[in-house]
Amino acid sequence: MGSYNFFIQSICPSIFIVFLLGYPDLIESAAKKGINTGPVIDVTKHLSFLDFSSNTTPRVNNDVKLLGSAIISEENGCVQIPNHSPTIDLRHLAGRAIYSSPIRLFDPLTETPASFETTFSFQFETTSTESSLNNRSSDFGGGGDGGHGLTFILVPDEFTVGRPGPWLGMLNDACDEDYKAVGVEFDSYHNPEFGDPNDNHVGINLGSIVSTTTINASDVGIHLKDGSIHRAWITYDGLRRYIDVRLGSDGKDSTSKLVFSGPLDIAPFLNEYMFVGFSASTGNHTQVHNVFSWNFTSMSRASLRIPSTETCESKIIVHGDEHGESSIKKAPSSFLIFLAVVVLLLAVLLNLYLNRKRRERKPEDFVLPEKKQRPRPPNKPRRFTIAEIFTATRSFSELQKLGSDTRGVTYKANMLNGCNVAVKRFSTQFFNSHGLDKRRVAKEIKAISRIRHPNLVPIRGWCFDHRETIVVYDYLPNSGLDKWVFGVGVLPWTRRFKVAKDVAEALSYLHSKQLAHKNMKTSSVFLDVSFRAVLGDFGFVLDSSDSTRFESAVSQTADVFYFGVFVLELVAGRERRCDIDGVRSDLLDLAWAMHEREEKVKVVDRRMGSLVNSEQAVRILEIGLLCTLNENKGRPTMEEVVEFLSLEKLVPELPPSRPIALFPYSSTTGLCSGYSCAPFK
């Protein structure tokens, strides 16, 4: 070991010095060169799945990533969206099945999309649920039998799942105009508001669920929902920007029929690397989308680059002369060799001298090295610098903005390690107008960041630099619940009921840790990739008029109250302040009025149609109203609310009429007492 250390410490540095002294001209020439493009090559990627059974394709579980309600059926050897199980409600589900690694589909140097061709066999299997849904409400204004269709997709990430129903699992409300996606849909449902010609069509979608081109499949004799196995061929020429889409039956003697052929520029909707695969969805009407086989081949042009000086370009490249002969390296001069030998000898002598000194040193002279600090776990919350936040949010660019409220603005940010986060930047005006102590806020942010629960958005860290107060959360691509409940689509009752339970469990856990949320509202609830509800956007602070002595008690009871109002919004599909029959009204007033008239069922969102469990919805409404009672008049704790929702405890009977005063909410002013919030909108 001593000889090895001697070699490392003395001989290796000397060899490196000889190298530097012997080849200064090569290093100097390499430093002067920029990055130059080399020869153009073709980058080819080929995927082949004869079926999706692990017996014939052992790596299928590693190569295919499933999101949402997509599964691999070993029995049928296919991808299924959604899971065809008798125990699962197939309505309003969405899923994706994509190749697990990104594929190069765009050359940023020449701005040329890749050429690709794909073929896959698929089948739309009508479920038994379909026959039981006759005369029920249609999906988002459409009509006709059958569920929604299947889409071949090119998407920028492997996390997002689109909305069910007409969105085909391709896009959701969180996918803004910067979300690049390309799809070829095979749709079996008629949504005229999206420009669908009928319930049997093919569409080409570029960054939007509204197709840029739609083709009636009936014109070529193809009926997508006839129960047979179809085969699709999609060919795209990246140089010509031209696409061909063909359809036919799946068999040895099948002939393809041209569905569409024409120019199509997908370059603006591509990143250099994209994920390829399939997405599908169901609505009020259901069907199972089966993909039995899939082949995909892409070819993109790329220019090789001559390595930079950092990659030792001068040491690995020998430039040919005009006639193709290699130039001869310049030999080091005799003086340089002599100098290198002298330096080597000096290094050896110095090393021998130091070794002798070490041996003569007394044992007590040795000092043990300091114990190294253990590395911080990668997901442990930490303090971010303002420079990191500025870089990740592109200097708080408007393009990165996700939303805002009276407390501040939330931005989407991309950290240096590649992960996406949500950054809540509290406004200075908010702190000044409420007389808030930032040290107190920082203390609570750190306290909440230490807890973990499946239904709480994890806090990644914080920043308290340059008079800034910033909280960094995990980013959830499916956005806030308000966009799903009050948006264009209709969230089914089964999802809403699950959301209420998820949020109740999150609040109950917070209260068990002597903490509170302090900002309970619909926009503070988010949906993760599996559509589980998680609670985020914590309030952290109370108004300055409130004493810290009563903060825990006041904020927890206020959490319960606002959970009750949240439940009313969830069941009614309306915001707290909303237009009812053309009149600006308060949802809490309406709910109590309907209770007094024993007509609570009229509060339930009519858009869900007859698919809603009315008895269950009324029970949830009663729990919501119970939460808005005065504390001394029967307002439950969140632990009791969880028991009510889990059917473990009977719901107490509500008073026959509305109490005179509801703490801490006033429907006339929309202001909060003991709770830091803005007037309801």
From TrEMBL:
Q: Where in the cell is it found?
A: Cell membrane; Membrane
Regarding the membrane, this protein is recorded as:
Single-pass type I membrane protein
Give start and end of each Protein kinase domain.
Answer: 396-651
Gene Ontology BP terms: defense response; response to other organism
Gene3D superfamilies according to UniProt: 2.60.120.200, Phosphorylase Kinase, domain 1, Transferase(Phosphotransferase) domain 1
Q: Which CDD domains match?
A: lectin_legume_LecRK_Arcelin_ConA
The protein's GO terms of the molecular function aspect are:
ATP binding; carbohydrate binding; protein serine/threonine kinase activity
EC numbers listed for it are 2.7.11.1
Looking at the UniProt entry, the stretches that span the membrane are 335-354
Q: Name one GO cellular component term.
A: plasma membrane
**What's in the keyword line of the UniProt record?**
ATP-binding, Cell membrane, Glycoprotein, Kinase, Lectin, Membrane, Nucleotide-binding, Receptor, Serine/threonine-protein kinase, Signal, Transferase, Transmembrane, Transmembrane helix
Family according to the record: In the C-terminal section; belongs to the protein kinase superfamily. Ser/Thr protein kinase family.
Q: What is this protein called?
A: non-specific serine/threonine protein kinase
